[in-house]
Design brief:
Layout (H helix, E strand, L loop, with lengths): L2 H16 L6 E2 L27 E5 L10 E6 L3 E4 L6 H11 E2 L2 E8 L7 E7 L6 H10 L4 E12 L2 E11 L7 E11 L2 E8 L6 H13 L2 E2 L2
Parallel strand pairs: 1-8
Antiparallel strand pairs: 2-3, 3-12, 4-6, 5-6, 6-7, 7-11, 8-9, 9-10, 10-11
């Protein structure tokens, strides 16, 4: 089995287990929800990407995504709480799949039925970490080579937020470089990270519409 195939198999296993579960550059802030036209078109932000059509809302106590914010779900995307693997498998991969750079995954929004990928929501383990610091640790916490980090301050629904984009290279497939986007907000004493990325089987057009919809529609949870 070649390297690319091994990486694809590993990624598929990780997704299956979770289901059911350079120098920093500062770029201009993006538009607020319902604000003016996008300001940073093209690489790396792609603000011209149109948010997906909403179908419902998730977030808050008692929802499949138990975090102190609510956000709209793209049509065809479904929220699922993350359950850590149990038994012998948990000892091998449980923490690796649910922990990343000082954060713990809370839920995942699955868009495979609609031809998309995944949007995952993580909560920082420290209640005092700032959004930017949480993003920096999150990006570095996957064991990948990180480059081209850029940050910007944005308005995400009813929240002030920090957004980050970066390129990541998996050490098992050094020829494959993926673009990542993540946004962090603070609510009810928690720092939350919303993250999507391109991958072997997903492109930005698969994940950015649902991501833009969610983060531009953020509101305080119930």
């Amino acid at each position: 089995m070649d390297t690319r195939t091994r990486v694809a198999v590993s990624a598929a296993l990780a997704l299956g287990l979770l289901a059911g579960c350079g120098d920093d550059d500062v770029t201009p802030a993006g538009p607020a929800a319902g604000g003016p036209a996008p300001q940073a078109t093209g690489e790396p932000w792609y603000d011209e990407t149109t948010p997906a059509s909403p179908s419902s809302t998730t977030g808050g106590t008692g929802s499949p995504c138990p975090v102190p914010v609510s956000f709209p779900l793209a049509d065809g995307w479904t929220a699922k709480a993350i359950e850590a693997p149990k038994g012998e498998l948990a000892e091998l991969v449980g923490e690796a799949l649910t922990k990343r750079g000082g954060t713990t995954v809370r839920c995942e929004v699955d868009g495979r039925a609609a031809g998309g990928g995944f949007l995952r929501i993580w909560a920082a383990d420290s209640p005092t970490v700032t959004p930017r610091a949480a993003l920096e640790s999150f990006a570095a916490g996957a064991g990948e080579t990180v480059a081209g980090q850029q940050f910007r301050d944005v308005r995400a629904g009813s929240f002030d937020a920090t957004e980050m984009t970066w390129l990541a290279t998996n050490p098992l497939a050094e020829e494959d470089e993926s673009r990542n986007w993540a946004l962090a907000v603070q609510s009810a004493g928690q720092t939350l990270v919303f993250a999507v990325n391109e991958g072997l089987i997903t492109e930005r057009t698969d994940v950015l519409p649902a991501y833009r919809l969610a983060v531009r529609g953020l509101a305080k949870g119930q």
